[in-house]
Amino acid sequence: MDRRIIAHLQEDGRRPFVSIAKDVGVTEKTVRSRVRQLLNSNIIQIVALTTPSALGYKAGALAALTTDPSVSASKISAALTQIDDVDYVVITTGRYGIFAEIISRNMKTLQETVENQIGKIAGVRSVELFPYFSLFYQQARFFMRGESANGHSGVRDEELDHIDKAIAAELSYDGRVALKVVADKLDISETQVRTRIQNMTAGGTMSILAIVNPMNLQDRSIAWVAIKAKGGESLRSLADRISQISYVSYVVICAGRFDIFAEFVCPSNDDLLDVLDQKVRQIPSVAAVESFFYLDLHYKRLVPVRSEGRATRPSTIVDDPDL
Hints:
Elements: H1 2-11, H2 17-24, H3 28-40, E1 44-50, E2 59-67, H4 73-81, E3 86-92, E4 98-104, H5 107-116, E5 124-138, E6 155-156, H6 162-171, H7 179-186, H8 190-203, E7 206-212, E8 221-229, H9 235-243, E9 248-254, E10 260-266, H10 269-280, E11 286-299
Antiparallel strand pairs: 1-7, 2-4, 2-5, 3-4, 3-11, 5-6, 5-9, 8-10, 8-11, 9-10
């Protein structure tokens, strides 16, 4: 039942509980109770997914870490999750033992995070940084129903005006907050809030949905795929082509030895191999591909930057193998 409820909330985080209850075949009270329990347990968080710049973050990077085998990767990963500017930590296979995504106010604070916090963690041997030119595409829908599972709706890295940013910031705390509350806080009409939300979701600059840890998905194969491009196509065009591939959940254009990192969440290793072999490697402007399988993942959602400094991140979305 939880999976079916989450599937509805991944399609639309603001879907009325009465509609979900009718489809699932239980009472509205049961749906409301199950959602409350999922939220309180940090199994899901219902929030607005949008470009980090809308929340006040101007710099991002993927930090690829090599580690000392005498120190457990889990211990290093746990230390990384305690750093405010780190929102995504993955233990992987391959030349790097751990990837950590850093989202910061600016490049100065990002560099300070690397030098003063990540670099000082016991067991971290080296840090190779891939600064983001663009967090090009985000797609966090994994529990999808029927034909909607075949879509490619996601969030694109586009600039929002100040009112849209303010609305997205409010919804990043609670995606189901009453629109009147948002309107009163921003001193605009409820109709304007509703219209702007509809325009942002329709235009692909924001999604309101239940965020889940993809490691909760049973029998899934997840990997970072690092891509080196060759001439003949712009990086934005290449990133757009990759974002159209089935099972892609995240695409960033970056600096460094690789040009693009893409995250794929596939039903099986065979599906992941098919994506790499039949889709990614067949793109003429792809020169090289390197894959890093996920062994474990810790994820914290973004919350807006406060004027006096960065807001403290909420709790990590936890693993729940029973989903």
